[in-house]
């Protein structure tokens, strides 16, 4: 594995981690590094920005959110975010940000579970006719979808 060569540390395979305090949250990191750090590798580039002539993961990207979630659930402090391409590699060390988790993620994930997933688990609507329209979305979700569509149409 290219990341193991880059950081000169063993990466152990791992499975599903379940959050100790919020048991409906879970994470599956790519691996755990021998000195108790989290390893994630990916090839996605559109979520990078250039800072000091180096690519850096944008805090707005879903990868940053994913990494913060994985760090939180696994109770790790550091992620080795590794980008591997045939032409070049880039390693970025991303630290767990408790403030980001608390302010941007935790309440939103709980709300999504309680208002969207739990409702569908208890009384599944989608499986009755297999139509997306049968899923009942809470008003704030519909509003967020509309705002996202507006932003997307402005960019295009």
Automatic annotation (TrEMBL):
InterPro entries in the record: NF-kappa-B_Signaling_Reg (IPR051703), PDDEXK-like_dom_sf (IPR011604), Restrct_endonuc-II-like (IPR011335)
One annotated GO biological process: DNA repair
Protein name in UniProt: YqaJ viral recombinase domain-containing protein
Organism: Macrosiphum euphorbiae (potato aphid)
